[in-house]
Amino acid sequence: MWRIETPPQPAVVKFDGEIDEHFVPDALKEIESPIILDLRSVERVTSAGIVRWLSFVKKCGSRLTLRACSPQVVGSMNMLRDFLGECRVESVVVPMYCPVCHVESFPVYSSGKLRAAYQDTSLLRHLLAQQCTKCKVTLAVDASLDDYFSFFAYARLPREQVEG
Ligand SMILES: [Zn+2]
């Protein structure tokens, strides 16, 4: 006899604000299912915030998946290997701008696609090629590609993204 058990649905939580000395994600303590934490609006990560973050990540263990990590969060991931703990990185924001109109753009890319391409600069540039919606010029990435994606050397991906 077969018994199919549906895995618990993840709770999707968006965190707006700064990861600083006030970062105490109380709301998440009550959640027992896996958590997807959307970090696209995080504009600042302070060193006191990192201390808080590390203990939070440790408590969550592998239940936590990070979605749309902002450039500031990616910077912390690259600076400190422990920042990710056991959590998985579903997607990250890649900061871009138009060299002609100077309009900024913050598209979100899946980690699986980025990781498959990141060791090959031409593949990565192809994946990241986006046109300005106004003038059609190819947007420039507002970061050093090597530095920005260095966390892929150790980041865990969501299970369904591991292949690609
Ligand atoms: Zn433009």
Radius of gyration of CA atoms, rounded to a whole number:
17 Å
Widest sheet, order of strands: 1-3-5-6
Q: Which hetero ligands occur in this complex?
A: zinc ion
Number of helices: 6
**Total number of distinct structural domains:** 1
Q: Span from first to last CA?
A: 34 Å
- Which of globular, elongated, flat, extended, rod-shaped describes the shape? globular
Low-confidence stretches: none
| Average pLDDT reading | 91
The number of strands is 11
Reported for the largest beta sheet, the result is:
4 strands, parallel
Order of helices and strands: EEHEEHEHEEEEEHHEH
Beta fraction of the residues? 15-25%
Structural class: alpha/beta
Helix % is 25-40%
Summed up:
The chain is an alpha/beta fold and 164 residues long. It has helices at 26-29, 47-60, 71-79, 111-117, 121-128, 145-148, and strands at 11-14, 17-19, 35-38, 42-45, 64-67, 88-89, 91-93, 96-97, 104-105, 108-110, 140-141. A hairpin with a 6-residue loop joins strand 8 and strand 9 (104-105).
Q: What would you note in describing this structure?
A:
With 164 residues, this protein is an alpha/beta fold. The chain has one domain (11-159). Helices cover 28% and strands 20% of the residues. The protein contains six helices and eleven strands. The strands form four sheets. A four-stranded parallel beta sheet has the order 1-3-5-6, with no helix packed on it. A three-stranded antiparallel beta sheet has the order 9-8-11, with no helix packed on it. A two-stranded parallel sheet has the order 2-4. Zinc ion is lined by residues 98, 100-101, 103, 132, 134-135, 137.
